[in-house]
Amino acid sequence: MIELKGVTFQQQKHIIFNRLSFVFPKQQFILVTGDSGSGKSTLFRLIAGFAQLSYTGEILLDGKNLATASMKEKAQTVGMVFQNPSQQFTMRTLRKEIIFALENLGLTVSEINRRMNHALALGETSHLADRVINQLSGGEKQRAALTVILAIDAPILILDEPFASIDFESRLRLIQKLKQLRNQGKTIILSDHDWLGYQEVVDQVVELTEGKLHTCSLDKLDATTCFYLDSSENNRSPFFDLQKVQIQRNKQLLLETSWQLNKGITTLTGANGAGKTSLLKAMSQLEKYRGTMFLNGKKLRKKRRLYQTMSLVVQDAAKQFVTLTVQEELSFSKNQHPEIRAKQQEALAYFKIDGAQSLFHLSEGQKKIVQLISMLSLDLEFLLLDEPFAGLDQKACRYFVEWIKEQANQQDFLIVTHRLAPLAGISHHHIVLEKQGLQVGERS
Amino acid sequence: MKKTNALNMSLFILILTLEISFTRSVSLNIFLIGLAVLFFLFQKKGGSVILLILLPLIPAFSTYWSVMLNGSGSEDAILLMTRTYAFAALGLSFAVGVDLEELLLVLEQKGVAPNFIYGLLVVVHSLPAIKNEVRAIQEASLLKGKKLYFWSPMFYIKTIFLAFTWRDHYTEAMYSHGYDETGVRTHQQRYISSLSGALWLSGLFFIGNILLFL
């Protein structure tokens, strides 16, 4: 059980929570929702207590106030998976990280080995255990982070958007596993903007708005699992040509294909680690490949001028930023129309983001929003997007999908996403990356 | 229990580095260079042999020439040239022969403060990520149609900011994995320094030192 008693917290003079009181009951699976930037991550970090955040009021975990407890004791009470999967690991591989964590808890060798093997099996990460963490894909890192927490085996699990870049099938399986853990007596608090797969699994949906928590009806989760990602009247005129393209990762073949992309909005899906990001990077000429690629008949080369016709929205929003503040970032590119500037300001106002704010102080969702505003306002022929909806609330998703749809008359899009709902009915074509090749997506 | 030569090797290299700094033996220097070459070949690291030849080339020969022209003559010049090569050989042997992670873990078990060890490990492991980050800034700019050059101040300002945010992320993440400055840790893998390795290295050390008296 987690009890918040009159918790007040402020960050840079902004009051985030004012005398917040709430009880998360024991041994339940609770989904926390709320707009991007509403403070979910901050709330989770306050509860977990691993950061030096000073607040007033009391937070009781299973009846105990751990504010002054040792980190070891806190870690044994709360397992936390942070939203950004990078910078979560001390060691080089997942196996070593699990060992590091369990050594910290002072366990015996046999107990360490037992828990490690159990967690690797439960998290379905045995195949990742000895790979260098830095070389894992975004989704694989998230699974690795979850596995460490499973090994620590704390009674309370707090997971901050743990499935943001995890593929659809794995997501459903992992949610079922969390359900089993709940049945075994764990309290699970999880935030996610994508509600797919939670029906009949979660016990409670709690919404965070304007610094207050309230319980919502479970009906909110009733969502369709059937998405039409290719419209029947779709346009069949190709504009992007991949000829005998081969992409390798660590000397192993990742993808081999000859393919033509048709004009319009194309959705690309595939399992974690299949090579979607590598394909986008290769298409943007940022990663090496064999073969040739053509955009509207012109052979592609890595030149500055190429990026005046096409560009890439990268997976980790922070890696898209060149400057330090929101305003600098939005006005970074050259020759902006006044119209576009007006559109940018309108978007900032809509999402209540202050232009003078430092990019480092934004929440993950807000970073994504700023990233999308800046990239969608570029004047391009072709834009590739890598997980543009990760960390975005539904309102924001709708806003950007609308923007994409508006632009689709004069601009083509290739969108990699695990989150299909926002694109249903919008996307013109669906392709899947599997078995080291591209295929036309089945209607599902 | 795992036998390791990380500590043996490091001590061997450290002592020899000090020794060649203070002795004047060309034959010891050449002996160490030869030893390093044999070691690289034995480890199938042919690239390191080439690196060993090329890396000290300019500093070694410029010291040689400057001492030849302005200094005390060819004896000192050859000594300094071989010494430069011997330093490079020892440095490369450390890079090739010692697993830094293993060395740090061994030192932790020998009682060095875990804060120091794990702090260093995080930095060592995040080096490739930092490299990626610098590349990402360059790519980010390119993706918006502007090329960023290495003299752009933006690179350095951003990297400093990143270092600050990463420091906080890493600390929080380490705590969440149960790391506690004052806590008692156990060790899944106990390391012991390999006796045979220590004997081998001491043997080589003595052979090298005999050369001093020939």
Short key terms for the protein model shown above:
heterodimer; A: about 450 residues; alpha/beta; 6-stranded mixed beta sheet; 11 helices; 20 strands; globular; B: about 210 residues; mainly alpha; two-stranded parallel ribbon; 9 helices; about 75% helix; about 5% strand; flat
What is the H-and-E element order of chain B?
EHHHHHHHHEH
- Give the helix/strand class of chain A: alpha/beta
From the N-terminal CA to the C-terminal CA of chain B, the straight-line distance is 42 Å
Kindly report the average pLDDT value of chain A. Answer: 90
Largest sheet of chain B: 2 strands, parallel
Helix content of chain A: 25-40%
Return Rg of chain B in Å.
22 Å
Strand order of the largest sheet of chain A: 6-7-8-3-9-10
Name the poorly predicted regions of chain A: none
Biggest sheet character of chain A: 6 strands, mixed
Strand content of chain A: 25-35%
Count of alpha/pi helices of chain B: 9
Structural class of chain B: mainly alpha
Task: Quote the beta fraction of chain B.
Answer: under 5%
| Dominant shape of chain B | flat
Describe the structure.
The complex is a heterodimer of chains A (444) and B (214). Chain A has 444 residues and is of the alpha/beta class. Chain A has helices at residues 40-48, 71-77, 94-104, 109-122, 138-152, 168-183, 276-283, 326-330, 338-350, 364-376, 394-407; strands at residues 2-11, 14-24, 29-33, 56-61, 64-65, 78-81, 156-160, 187-191, 204-209, 212-216, 238-249, 252-262, 265-269, 290-295, 298-299, 310-313, 382-386, 412-416, 429-434, 437-440. The mean pLDDT of chain A is 90. Chain B is an all-alpha fold and 214 residues long. In chain B, 76% of the residues lie in helices and 3% in strands. Chain B contains nine helices and two strands; from the N terminus they run E-H-H-H-H-H-H-H-H-E-H. In chain B, helix 1 packs antiparallel against helix 5, helix 1 (6-22) runs parallel beside helix 9 (195-211) and helix 2 (26-42) packs parallel to helix 5 (74-97). The longest helix of chain B is centred in the middle third of the chain and has 30 residues, at 114-143. The mean pLDDT of chain B is 91. Classes of the chains: A alpha/beta (444), B mainly alpha (214). Chains A and B meet through helix 2, strand 6, helix 3 and helix 4 of A and helix 7 and helix 8 of B.
